[in-house]
Amino acid sequence: MTYCIGVKLDAGMVFLSDSRTNAGLDRINTFRKMMIYERPADRFMALLTAGNLSVSQSVREILQVEAIDNGDEPPVTIWNATSMYDAARVLGSAVRRVHLQDGPSLAAAGVDFNATMIFGGQIKGEAMRLFLIYSAGNFIEATRETCFFQAGESKYGKPILDRMLTPGTTLAEAAKCTLVSMDSTMKSNLSVGLPLDLLVYEHNQFESPKAICIDDKNPYFLSIRATWGQRLKQAFESIDDPQWNGGSAEHPLCTPSVRYEPLRKITHRSEKIV
Asked: 135: how many CB neighbours lie within 10 A of its CB?
């Protein structure tokens, strides 16, 4: 399994992925899940993949040459698409092509055709856009209300993203937030692991020097891992313990309620217990 995050902000975009792929407790492999497609001054796109590794690798390979019909015009590829929406359509077509080729044989072997992808970037002449592509090749787009997408083992790292990310979040804060989210996921799920690929893209730049592979010796990530755990413990310990008898507690646990009462089954001594 894996964990990927894509974030679209007013200031730019942040992408983060792990690289762990496991086929059992005694077989853990490393495969990087991020691919960058870049033509300086014209377009910048990033693809994160989760799910069946063979499907993801086939899609990435086909995407280099995949094209969709454009009527009397030249076929649309990711390199000549005039919008990120059209580029996402090309990616969806590549997913369906792999399903057509490999889907029947995978089904015959009892293996699900499983792939989820985060695809985002910017093409000159339009704003940045971010998409979540499903196994059927269809997709949805990020909005100001939902400015990030996750793929893979998403549940452990979602709370911090929900609490902290808004379109106005700075790129530095968003990068920090995604790394905390990844660390939380790694803490709770062994199928997600180092090294990580982190990419930060600034709006209207069409290239990015801020791409790095983070391993187990990276000082900033080690600092996040130590500091986040310590601060979480301090925050937890700063919250009052529950006060059952109310009394003079500032935030009493037990308060009168006419709507909700505990559900009880009381067995009297005279009843025969079966």
From this structure: 19
For residue 198, the cross-strand partners are: 16, 212
CATH at 69: 3.60.20.10
Q: pTM of the prediction? A: 0.92
Q: Are strands 148-152 and 115-123 parallel, antiparallel or unpaired?
A: unpaired
CA–CA separation, 165 vs 142, rounded Å?
13
Let me know: does 4 contact 46? Beta carbons within 8 Å: no
Give the whole-angstrom CA distance, residue 48 versus residue 34: 5
Does the residue 12 lie in any domain?
Answer: yes
If one counts the domains in the chain, the total is 1
In a domain, 109, yes or no: yes
pLDDT, tens digit (0-9, with 9 covering 90-100), for 102-148: 999 999 999 999 999 999 999 999 999 999 999 999 999 999 999 99
**Domain range spanning residue 173?**
3-233
φ, ψ at 33 (rounded to 5°): -110, 0
